[in-house]
Design goal:
Blueprint: E1 4-13, E2 16-26, E3 31-35, H1 42-50, E4 57-62, E5 65-66, H2 72-78, E6 80-82, H3 95-105, H4 116-133, H5 149-161, E7 167-171, H6 179-192, E8 197-201, H7 205-211, E9 214-219, E10 222-227, H8 229-233, H9 236-242, H10 247-253
Parallel strand pairs: 3-8, 3-9, 6-7, 7-8
Antiparallel strand pairs: 1-2, 1-4, 4-5, 9-10
Bound molecules: adenosine-5'-diphosphate and magnesium ion.
Length: 254
């Protein structure tokens, strides 16, 4: 059974069909990448999947549960987390406090019988574990808003992980990162797959081809094809779509 699927999802913005009957399946444990030229509808699809905007038609299922029409905060509870490209960071607060708040927000009643002090310590321990996963340990006591962009992106991923998601949505995690940070992020994502299934939307084709078990190609709001990295690389229509639009992408594919 697949962990996640959409069936016939449609989204219109006025006369524009931004998401055209999209059916997408993500298997448990895989890294599934969503690629496509600018304006193909990738962000719209992620917004639909995370429940940020409602779909006009179609069905969405997470881990056997129909989540169609469910608002985003309930989707988080159902096991889906998404990175919001640093917008959910408390910029004036330390990295440690950001992480502790995120852990606490998702702890439900699990710490309820503990004393205040033990509670604090447990939260801190979880927060530090999350920081270690994203290589943030050395930044724990820094004010989040003062950190370089690449570090903030990592904090954003750590905050999403705090909910222990079954499905993690990563919308362009390498955007705005230099080559060194991008390379590090590839390593981090490779580690994260051991604990969660990942739907990765990414422009950096090198990263996509290194990481993804399967890739779906979105063009004009439709899934052109889904397949392994090799299948996608050798797909004549995919090469056609990228030709002349994104030279980097073609270079990475050949
Ligand atoms: P991508 O992320 O692949 O670059 P988007 O999902 O951002 O593509 O956009 C897909 C299409 O939908 C584009 O033509 C874009 O202009 C349009 N679009 C996206 N969001 C809105 C919106 N809120 N209102 C109107 N049109 C939108
Ligand atoms: Mg986009």
């Amino acid at each position: 059974m697949s962990l996640f699927k959409t069936e016939g999802v449609v989204k219109r913005f006025g006369g524009l069909l931004a998401t055209d009957n999209v059916s997408l399946t993500v298997e448990k444990g895989e890294i599934h990448a969503l690629i496509g030229p600018n304006g193909a509808g990738k962000s719209t699809l992620v917004n639909l999947i995370s429940g940020l905007i409602p779909a006009d038609q179609g069905r969405t299922v997470l881990d056997g549960k129909d989540i169609t029409g469910m608002p985003s905060h309930l989707r988080v509870r159902a096991g889906m987390a998404r990175c919001f490209q640093v917008t959910n960071i408390f910029r004036q607060d330390t990295v440690l406090n950001n992480l502790m708040l995120a852990v606490q927000a998702h702890s439900g009643t699990s710490f309820r019988f503990l004393s205040r002090r033990s509670n604090e310590l447990l939260l801190q321990e979880h927060a530090e574990q999350l920081a270690a996963k994203l290589d943030l340990t050395q930044h724990l006591h820094r004010i989040a808003g003062t950190l370089p962009h690449g570090v903030q992106r990592k904090l954003d991923v750590a905050l999403a992980l705090a909910s222990r998601p079954k499905l993690l949505l990563l919308d362009e995690p390498m955007a705005g990162m230099g080559p060194e940070d991008s390379l590090q992020m590839v390593g981090i994502i490779r580690e994260l797959r051991k604990e969660t299934t990942i739907l990765l939307i990414e422009h950096d084709m090198d990263a996509v081809f290194q990481l993804a078990d399967r890739i779906s190609v979105l063009v004009y709001g439709r899934i052109l094809t889904s397949g392994t990295a090799d299948e996608i690389r050798n797909h004549p229509q995919v090469q056609e779509v990228y030709l002349g639009t994104e030279d980097d992408a073609v270079e990475a594919m050949v």
